[in-house]
């Protein structure tokens, strides 16, 4: 495959929500592959030098691994989700690797959802939005995760930039980590914080609904480890796409992951994507003793996830109401 950094950046879709849903419908499953290059988990064939954050060879090793993963999943999933923390820890070389991996993924026809969980006030939020949504942004994301916990006004720069560029925004509402309830489940005027937040996002979500599918480019993060709470979020946000972490390595099932989805025009459940990172990228050590072995193991893990999620949306969709 040609060096993606030497190619013109593909244009963003006119509307992220429509583009994502149409690709998921065509593929028949909602899998989103996370690109989380944990240094300790990098398979032996890709390791270089000490694999420490300050070793210049580490960023090159990470880039090679991530590019190989992009090549394995291209054409088989709608979207990939690089987590910026694993690149930022490597300094400027890691950020350069992120730029190149994102460029390669977009050149391969994948949508790129950058997992950065940004959130700040005023001009700082505008700077973050420009870094990922600007027309000449080095890391040109199709969507971005953001945090609302400094206040809803901090979301405005991201939403404005997303509307102007056709990009998407996923707001943290109910996350998959064990401590998420410390704040997100607190009762405020008789309702949990996450429900009140979902309700507050409804006007902006409706305003960003797509003309082709009705699904919005304003989505929410809703962890698969709390599936019983998905229905409360969906009630407040019927047009929001869910980004669902927690499936795979964190233990949630495929059926739990799609609990907040609804029946689409073909009778299949839709309404978001389900992220899996480590379970796809880091197969067992024995299977990763060679580059060819790693490729086979990734292909097998990818096929299992696709089958599980495809079955979950098809079987549950057949009997779903709505």
Question: Can you offer a commentary on this structure?
Answer:
With 322 residues, the protein is of the alpha/beta class. Helix content is 42%, strand content 15%. It contains 12 helices and 12 strands. The protein has helices at residues 16-27, 56-73, 85-88, 92-107, 122-133, 156-165, 181-184, 193-207, 230-236, 254-257, 278-281, 291-319, and strands spanning 31-35, 79-82, 111-118, 143-146, 168-174, 187-188, 191-192, 218-222, 242-244, 262-263, 269-270, 272-276. The chain has an 8-stranded parallel beta barrel, surrounded by 7 helices. Strands 6-7 form a two-stranded antiparallel ribbon. It has a two-stranded antiparallel sheet with strand order 10-11. Strand 10 and strand 11 form a beta hairpin. It is globular. The model has no long low-confidence stretch (mean pLDDT 92).
């Amino acid at each position: 495959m040609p060096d993606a950094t030497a190619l013109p950046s593909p244009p963003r879709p006119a509307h992220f929500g429509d583009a994502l849903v149409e690709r998921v419908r065509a593929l028949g499953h909602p899998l989103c592959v996370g690109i989380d290059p944990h240094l300790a988990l990098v398979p032996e064939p890709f390791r270089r030098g000490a694999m420490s954050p300050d070793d210049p060879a580490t960023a090159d090793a990470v880039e090679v691994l991530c590019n190989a993963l992009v090549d394995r999943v291209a054409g088989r999933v709608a979207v990939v989700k690089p987590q910026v923390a694993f690149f930022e820890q490597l300094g400027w070389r890691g950020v350069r690797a992120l730029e190149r991996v994102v460029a390669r993924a977009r050149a391969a026809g994948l949508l790129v959802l950058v997992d950065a969980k940004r959130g700040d006030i005023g001009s700082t939020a505008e700077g973050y939005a420009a870094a990922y949504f600007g027309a000449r942004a080095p890391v040109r994301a199709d969507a971005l995760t953001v945090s609302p916990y400094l206040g809803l006004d901090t979301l405005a720069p991201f939403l404005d930039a997303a509307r102007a560029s056709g990009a998407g925004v996923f707001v943290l509402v109910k996350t998959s980590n064990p401590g998420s309830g410390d704040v997100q489940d607190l009762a405020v005027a008789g309702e949990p914080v996450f429900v009140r937040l979902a309700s507050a996002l409804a006007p902006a979500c409706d305003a960003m609904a797509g003309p082709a599918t009705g699904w919005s480019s304003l989505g929410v993060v809703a962890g698969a480890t709390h599936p019983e709470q998905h229905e409360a979020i969906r009630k407040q946000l019927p047009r929001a796409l869910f980004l669902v972490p927690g499936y795979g390595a964190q233990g949630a099932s495929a059926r739990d992951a799609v609990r907040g989805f609804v029946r689409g025009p073909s009778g299949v459940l839709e309404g978001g994507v389900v992220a899996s990172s480590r379970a796809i990228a880091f197969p067992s050590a024995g299977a990763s003793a060679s580059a060819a072995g790693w490729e086979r193991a990734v292909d097998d893990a990818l096929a299992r996830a696709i089958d599980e999620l495809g079955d979950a949306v098809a079987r549950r969709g057949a009997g779903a109401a709505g």
